[in-house]
């Protein structure tokens, strides 16, 4: 398939702009481009056909099963989009005076109220653009807290060996060193191993609960107390909140700061480069350090943006991805106090149903009841047949469904991490079990077929090493 630039032909015009309705202003010479913007010149029919063809090559939650473990790729209700398309939301400007955007500020205030209730936090900012950005913001607040106490020796963040890769990366960006703590035989943080690494240099711990193995940390209260007793703070990675929202609250587990993935847990769009939304919630002790212009405060029926006294400053231009927050608030209001926990419990039910069905064919990395996701290990299959987790993932593509996350967490060899989410029906899960069983049969009857998959896709097996080491990130013009 040709790129849009390869279809370009000089002289083809496609400009149907409305007449200019504002005074024309010429930019100063120093701000003008030195050469013309290099845009493709393509007729409108060719443009629509090009992007329609691209759309047919993509796969999302609207196209079929999308069990991307630890990323909660759930269905996005169209009602959310309808609310986010209201003209009074789409036509406002971030530089408008606050008295003219009271409705938008009320969206923030309501979203903060409900998300704090769900998480057990006291205040929330919506500035972070996505989950990893929320992690960075949360760690900056933790650092500001220790700095304000003149506790400069705290320079280490504890991270479990099953943590998301963004956790140590975010800690490093803030200037912290990371210390890994091993999991026990059940895939959870070992309190005794944790005690060995905490001390007066501990700034905090980053923890996901349920963790990336789909296990609920049974010793969570003990874990957070160990860190608190050492003078550190507890950071909750909200990537897996979908399994427990409305059932248990991170704030009640002993966490001081949390980031949420509204583009996962609360059914807003996810993938394709964004936009996401990764708001962070904090306990009262951390409120003074929140970013500027958040949170929203209501006084005598009027909403205003606050500037916390010891703020870490802005972490994003203006106020975050507002329309994503509108979608999340719509989802919360639609489900309500009964629907939120029901969604979480259904996610757990679906994951356990699917895991039980797949146990007949594949080994579960950490057996036992799971939460929202579980991890299969194809270690034995690879040893017996040479077929890898990557090979199986490629063959899944031939069945018009998306493969699960591969090779993560790294403590499970040949891992496939599967999360079906609450929006999948029993009929879909039964079909998934049938297909995975069929692939398992092919692994042993014709392993070479699996190793050369996919076979039905437009693009076959790629040279992934070359793609990683010699990527072509931009079109090269003549």
UniProtKB/TrEMBL annotation:
<dbReference type="GO" id="GO:0016594">
    <property type="term" value="F:glycine binding"/>
</dbReference>
<dbReference type="GO" id="GO:0030170">
    <property type="term" value="F:pyridoxal phosphate binding"/>
</dbReference>
<feature type="domain" description="Glycine dehydrogenase C-terminal">
    <location>
        <begin position="343"/>
        <end position="444"/>
    </location>
</feature>
<dbReference type="InterPro" id="IPR023012">
    <property type="entry name" value="GcvPB"/>
</dbReference>
<dbReference type="GO" id="GO:0005960">
    <property type="term" value="C:glycine cleavage complex"/>
</dbReference>
<keyword id="KW-0663">Pyridoxal phosphate</keyword>
<comment type="subunit">
    <text>The glycine cleavage system is composed of four proteins: P, T, L and H. In this organism, the P 'protein' is a heterodimer of two subunits.</text>
</comment>
<dbReference type="InterPro" id="IPR015424">
    <property type="entry name" value="PyrdxlP-dep_Trfase"/>
</dbReference>
<dbReference type="InterPro" id="IPR015421">
    <property type="entry name" value="PyrdxlP-dep_Trfase_major"/>
</dbReference>
<comment type="function">
    <text>The glycine cleavage system catalyzes the degradation of glycine. The P protein binds the alpha-amino group of glycine through its pyridoxal phosphate cofactor; CO(2) is released and the remaining methylamine moiety is then transferred to the lipoamide cofactor of the H protein.</text>
</comment>
<protein>
    <recommendedName>
        <fullName>Probable glycine dehydrogenase (decarboxylating) subunit 2</fullName>
        <ecNumber>1.4.4.2</ecNumber>
    </recommendedName>
</protein>
<keyword id="KW-0560">Oxidoreductase</keyword>
<dbReference type="GO" id="GO:0019464">
    <property type="term" value="P:glycine decarboxylation via glycine cleavage system"/>
</dbReference>
<dbReference type="InterPro" id="IPR015422">
    <property type="entry name" value="PyrdxlP-dep_Trfase_small"/>
</dbReference>
<feature type="modified residue" description="N6-(pyridoxal phosphate)lysine">
    <location>
        <position position="264"/>
    </location>
</feature>
<feature type="domain" description="Aminotransferase class V">
    <location>
        <begin position="153"/>
        <end position="271"/>
    </location>
</feature>
<comment type="similarity">
    <text>Belongs to the GcvP family. C-terminal subunit subfamily.</text>
</comment>
<dbReference type="Pfam" id="PF21478">
    <property type="entry name" value="GcvP2_C"/>
</dbReference>
<dbReference type="GO" id="GO:0004375">
    <property type="term" value="F:glycine dehydrogenase (decarboxylating) activity"/>
</dbReference>
<dbReference type="Pfam" id="PF00266">
    <property type="entry name" value="Aminotran_5"/>
</dbReference>
<dbReference type="InterPro" id="IPR000192">
    <property type="entry name" value="Aminotrans_V_dom"/>
</dbReference>
<dbReference type="InterPro" id="IPR020581">
    <property type="entry name" value="GDC_P"/>
</dbReference>
<dbReference type="GO" id="GO:0005829">
    <property type="term" value="C:cytosol"/>
</dbReference>
<dbReference type="InterPro" id="IPR049316">
    <property type="entry name" value="GDC-P_C"/>
</dbReference>
């Amino acid at each position: 398939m040709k790129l849009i630039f390869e279809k370009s032909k000089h002289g083809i015009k496609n400009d149907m702009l409305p007449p200019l309705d504002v005074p024309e202003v010429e930019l100063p010479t120093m701000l003008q481009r030195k050469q013309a913007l290099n845009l493709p010149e393509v007729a409108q029919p060719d443009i629509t056909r090009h992007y329609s063809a691209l759309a047919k090559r993509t796969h999302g939650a609207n196209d079929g099963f999308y069990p991307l473990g630890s990323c909660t790729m759930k269905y996005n209700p169209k009602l959310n989009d309808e609310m986010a398309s209201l003209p009074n939301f789409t036509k406002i400007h971030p530089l408008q005076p606050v008295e003219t955007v009271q409705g938008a500020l009320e969206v923030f205030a309501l979203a903060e109220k409900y998300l704090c209730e769900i998480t057990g936090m006291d205040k929330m900012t919506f500035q972070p653009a996505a989950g990893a950005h929320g992690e960075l913001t949360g760690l900056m607040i933790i650092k500001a807290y220790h700095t304000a106490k003149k506790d400069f020796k705290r320079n280490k963040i504890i991270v479990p060996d099953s943590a998301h890769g963004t956790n140590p990366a975010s800690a490093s960006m803030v200037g912290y060193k990371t210390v890994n703590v091993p999991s026990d035989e059940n895939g959870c943080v070992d309190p005794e191993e944790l005690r060995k690494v905490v001390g007066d240099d501990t700034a905090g711990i980053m923890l996901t609960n349920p963790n990336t193995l789909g296990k609920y940390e049974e010793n969570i209260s003990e874990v957070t107390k160990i860190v608190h007793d050492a003078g550190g703070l507890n950071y909750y990675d909200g990537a897996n909140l979908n399994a427990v929202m409305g059932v248990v609250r991170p704030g009640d587990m002993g966490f001081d700061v949390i980031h949420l993935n509204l583009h996962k847990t609360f059914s807003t769009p996810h993938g394709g480069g964004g936009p996401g939304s990764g708001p962070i919630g904090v306990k009262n002790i951390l409120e003074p350090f929140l970013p500027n212009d958040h949170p929203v405060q209501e006084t005598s029926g009027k909403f205003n943006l606050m500037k916390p006294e010891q703020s870490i400053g802005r972490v994003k231009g203006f106020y975050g991805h507002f329309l994503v927050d509108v979608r999340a608030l719509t989802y919360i209001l639609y489900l309500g106090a009964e629907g939120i926990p029901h969604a979480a419990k259904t996610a757990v039910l679906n994951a356990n149903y699917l895991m039980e069905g797949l146990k007949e064919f594949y080994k579960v990395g950490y057996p036992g009841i799971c939460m929202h996701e579980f991890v299969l290990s194809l270690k034995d299959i690879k040893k017996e047949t040479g077929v890898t987790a990557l090979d199986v993932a490629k063959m899944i593509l031939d069945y018009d469904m998306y493969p699960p996350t591969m090779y993560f967490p790294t403590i499970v060899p040949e891992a496939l991490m599967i999360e079906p989410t609450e929006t999948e029906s029993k009929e879909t899960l039964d079909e998934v079990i049938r297909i995975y069983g069929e692939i398992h049969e092919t692994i042993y009857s014709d392993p070479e077929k699996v190793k050369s998959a996919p076979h039905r896709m437009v693009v076959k097996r790629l040279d992934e090493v070359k793609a990683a080491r010699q990527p072509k990130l931009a079109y090269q013009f003549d």
